[in-house]
Design a protein that fits this description.
The complex is a heterotrimer. By secondary structure, chain A is an all-alpha fold. Chain A has 15 helices and no strands. The chains are: A mainly alpha, B mainly alpha, C alpha/beta.
Chain lengths: ~350, ~290, ~250
């Protein structure tokens, strides 16, 4: 091998070898998020909700964007995590927040594993419908088991212990919550980032791009998908648990079609199948929603519907997809301009 | 004994409504392989046209139904030609996004134009009251719905089995490429089938206004229900949708009486188990 | 020569269609074996049966003497049976290198790794680049699939499969759709295949078949019609009649 031109000099090999390295601009969202904490102390409730939504969207991206599992039932796992924390706290069984997250992740991960084993035997409309059924099932059970879940009203005034015994949750301004959620989000984000750049993540992309081919190269496709779905569920569960802890209540809204459809819209809006799409989508959606949806609810729904139609027809890659296209047009224009210059 | 008959008749009537609404969804799913989550929206639009024509324009029941059918079929045909057809070969996610977006727009438009309240359906006098069945009397409305549903089912079935267009549709559902190479105009077939299915949904929306209600949230409230009926029956199978709708109607109706809390849980659980055992539905063909 | 991949009285029905009839077939180690036959003879169905994409209605499939009839596709790949597809099945959103990485990673067991970056598996990358260099694809390793001409895409299809280091390699019309100006790159690649693996090629191109094959099996309407060396098959009047008959019905 040493006599032939070293393959590792090849630009493709070099690119692949460098792909996972941290770029300088990847620190920007986190710096901005930290800056937000200092700049807008009165809006930290909104900020916390935003960060939790980002985590939820990232969890969906793992299943939908990277593995290609189309699900409208992802709120099942968000709710599972939220209710786990809620029930444990309300009935005074477990109130420590960080370990509460771990428990929630395990519970929702298990729900994801079991439902994935069962549902991922199907594809297409059948799968989509089964995800809706699973979510609906959990929603109805939560509604029915009112003594432990609070039924329609949910559980409120959840007692959550201070983080590390010292930092109490701030009921009024959510300052502790914000930093807490930001920290958890960072850890989860790094986990997903590692996953995405790993050989496992590469095989998920393969399954999404050409499932039949993956079977033909000996990949245990279903196991990979089930595992991915379970991890995605665990992350969604962490997001739900954070929601319950930050708000100190949990109700059926954590489990409904509304929440599941919204997170899918957010993901697609930002750009699915890419790490930062969730962040971009969540910021764009929640900012717009904050200003528009309460003031003009019907117009908001109309506009949202129109946006989805346009995205489906023309802008599948969402905001980041459009940004990509503009970037490459810019690059081509620059190249063209350079070629026009007299030498 | 009367109790059972009550259950059965009530359930059958509800099931018939489900059938009439869902048959269009089943055929388009089987024919185009298109995930149309906005199908309930057409049922809603048609239902509103029918009910408003009766309540505000004073149209009698049957002409109102005809109007609802025609208007909805026309609207859906236009949407199909302009928008839906561009996504037939698109990835499933795009189809899901498009139809969700469409249904949001439909809900918003109806809310703006008519208002968020439930629209009451005033039945014509000949549909009110009770019919004597010999061993018992039952609501005339429900009996008529059952009758109409059966007639529609037979008519559609005959249409599929006996007409040339029906044969073409069946051929295209079975093997689209083959059908195309036989010279069948697939695009035209899609439009006609889509329009017809949406028109049927309109009739179901109007007829079922008593059972399912008619308000702007209708398409999302019953989305899962329609999908379950289609999936359990097997996409593209008329008889399948029919039996699935009736079974689900009866089960749901009975459970609402005896197990008001657990009814939906039961249906969801049952659907999951059924589709795991037979992913193609009760009557569908294995993939 | 020992038997590598065998079928015994293999049958496959699709409802009333009897696609594979009682086929008893042997692919030997190191073989250069071709499967030919008129359109609709069931050649691709047969490959699907060999690879586990389809389960037979009757009969058995054996690999090195072991019954693999019930074993599914991915496991057969692990045993050493791999195929290419008649129409390219590539990962179109990825580069050539990333395409080949996929199969090599599966084979060496790197694929389930969630912790290390894919780019750090130097062994997989090196092997991929080596394979691409052998197939003269190294210069386009960084390009996305849609940027390549069809002939080179077909070569990537072959590369992905070769990354599995199969013992039995089944090529379904490897030169199909490739413009004649480019087809030599496919043919050269096939010529250069390791001598130890058993290769079965399905094709219509008689030049390719006669250039490559040491043994030919003729399939007609799902059943084995004739079998022998290229010389024997070429001289067989019945085979000529089957193909000529085919030609006249198509108005050639």
């Amino acid at each position: 091998m040493s006599m032939t031109p070293a393959p590792s000099d090849n630009i493709a090999a070099l690119a692949l070898g460098r792909r996972h390295r941290f770029q300088w601009w990847e620190t920007l969202p986190w710096i901005l998020a930290l800056g937000f904490y200092f700049a807008f102390p009165r809006y930290l409730g909104f900020g916390t909700e935003l960060l939790i939504t980002v985590l939820f969207a990232i969890s969906l991206d793992l299943a939908l964007g990277y593995a290609g599992i189309i699900t409208l039932g992802h709120a099942a796992f968000f709710g599972a995590g939220a209710y786990t924390v809620g029930m444990l706290a309300k009935h005074e069984i477990w109130t420590e927040p960080i370990s509460g997250l771990v428990i929630a992740a395990i519970v929702s991960g298990l729900v994801g594993l079991l439902s994935g084993l069962v549902l991922l035997r199907t594809i297409g409309l059948t799968l989509l419908m089964l995800t809706l059924c699973t979510m609906g099932l959990l929603e109805e059970i939560a509604n029915m088991a009112a003594e432990i879940t609070g039924g329609f009203d949910g559980l409120d005034s959840l007692p959550i212990k201070p983080i590390f015994g010292k930092f109490e949750f701030d009921v009024l301004y959510s300052s502790t919550q914000y930093l807490y959620v930001l920290g958890v989000l960072l850890v989860c984000f790094l986990f997903v980032r590692m996953l995405v750049y790993s050989p496992y993540g590469h095989s998920l992309t393969g399954i999404r791009e050409n499932t039949l081919r993956m079977h033909a190269v000996g990949a245990p496709v279903r196991w990979r998908l089930v595992l991915c779905y379970a991890m995605s569920a665990a992350l969604a569960g962490v997001a739900g648990a954070l929601w319950a802890q930050a708000n100190a209540y949990v109700n059926l809204s954590t489990l409904g079609l509304d929440r599941a459809a919204t997170v899918m819209i957010i993901l697609v809006l930002g750009g699915y199948g890419r790490l930062y799409g969730s962040i971009v989508g969540a910021v764009a959606y929640m900012v717009l929603s904050h200003f528009l949806s309460k003031a003009y609810p019907t117009a908001w729904q109309l506009g949202l519907g129109l946006l989805l139609v346009v995205i489906a027809l023309y802008a599948r890659g969402g905001i980041l997809g459009i940004a990509d296209q503009l970037w490459s047009r810019l690059g081509r224009a620059q190249k063209h301009a350079q070629e026009q210059k007299p030498s | 004994m009367i109790e059972i008959a009550n259950m059965l008749l009530g359930g059958l009537a509800a099931g018939m409504v489900l059938f009439i609404v869902s048959v269009g969804l089943s055929v388009t799913m089987g024919l185009m392989g298109f995930v149309n989550l906005a199908h309930g929206g057409f049922a809603m639009i048609g239902g509103y046209v029918i009910v408003l024509a009766m309540n505000r324009l004073g149209l009698p029941f049957l002409p109102a139904m005809a109007l609802g059918f025609v208007v909805t079929a026309a609207v859906s045909a236009v949407l199909e030609r302009l928008l839906y057809s561009r996504l037939y070969r698109a990835p499933e996610l795009d189809q899901v996004l498009f139809t969700i977006g469409l249904v949001f727009m439909m809900i918003a438009l109806v809310t703006v134009l008519v208002g968020p309240e439930t629209q009451p359906l005033t039945l014509p006098t000949w549909m009110q009251g009770q019919i004597n069945l010999g061993f018992m009397t039952y609501r005339a409305y429900s009996i008529i719905v059952i009758g109409v549903g059966t007639v529609i089912m037979l008519a559609i079935w005959l249409g599929f089995e006996r007409t040339r267009m029906g044969a073409q549709i069946r051929a295209a559902v079975d093997n689209r490429r083959m059908a195309e190479s036989l010279g069948i105009n697939i695009a035209r077939l899609f439009t006609i089938t889509f329009a017809f299915g949406s028109g049927m949904a309109a009739l179901g929306g109007g007829l079922g206004a008593e059972f399912l209600g008619l308000d702007p949230q209708y398409p999302l409230k019953y989305l899962v229900m329609f999908l379950i009926v289609v999936a359990v029956g097997g996409a593209g199978r008329i008889t399948g949708v029919f039996y699935a709708a009736l079974i689900i109607g009866v089960v749901d109706f009975t459970l609402k009486k005896y197990l008001p809390q657990g009814g939906t849980v039961f249906i969801y659980a049952l659907t999951i188990l059924l589709l795991l055992w037979r992913p193609q539905g009760l009557f569908g063909r294995p993939a | 020569m020992t038997a590598l991949l065998e079928t015994q009285s293999l049958n496959k029905n699709f409802g009333a269609l009897h696609a594979t009839r009682d086929v008893t077939f042997t692919l030997e180690e190191g073989a250069r074996h071709a499967l030919i036959g008129p359109n609709g003879a069931g050649k691709t169905t047969f490959i699907n049966l060999l690879t586990g994409v389809l389960i037979p209605s009757a009969g058995t499939v054996l690999f090195k003497g072991r019954d693999i009839t019930k074993i599914e596709q991915a496991e057969r790949v692990k045993l050493g049976i791999a195929r290419t597809f008649q129409i390219n099945r590539l990962f179109r959103g990825l580069s050539v290198l990333e395409n080949v990485y996929m199969s090599i990673a599966e084979r060496v067991g790197a694929a389930p790794d969630m912790l290390r970056p894919a780019g750090r598996r130097g062994d997989v990358i090196d092997e991929a680049m080596e394979l691409l260099t052998r197939l003269k694809l190294a210069d386009v390793a960084h390009k996305m699939i849609p940027e390549l001409p069809y002939g080179r895409q077909r070569l990537v299809e072959l590369a992905i499969t070769l990354g599995l280091k199969p013992q039995a390699l089944l090529l379904d019309e490897p030169a199909a759709g490739v413009p004649s100006a480019e087809s030599h790159i496919i043919l050269d690649a096939i010529d250069a295949l390791p001598k130890s693996i058993g290769v079965l090629i399905i094709d219509h191109d008689m030049d390719l078949v006669f250039r490559f094959a040491k043994k030919i099996t003729v399939l007609v309407r799902g059943a084995v019609f004739a079998e022998g060396t290229p010389k024997e098959i070429g001289a067989n009047p019945d085979v000529r009649a089957v193909y000529l008959g085919q030609a006249t019905t198509h108005g050639a």
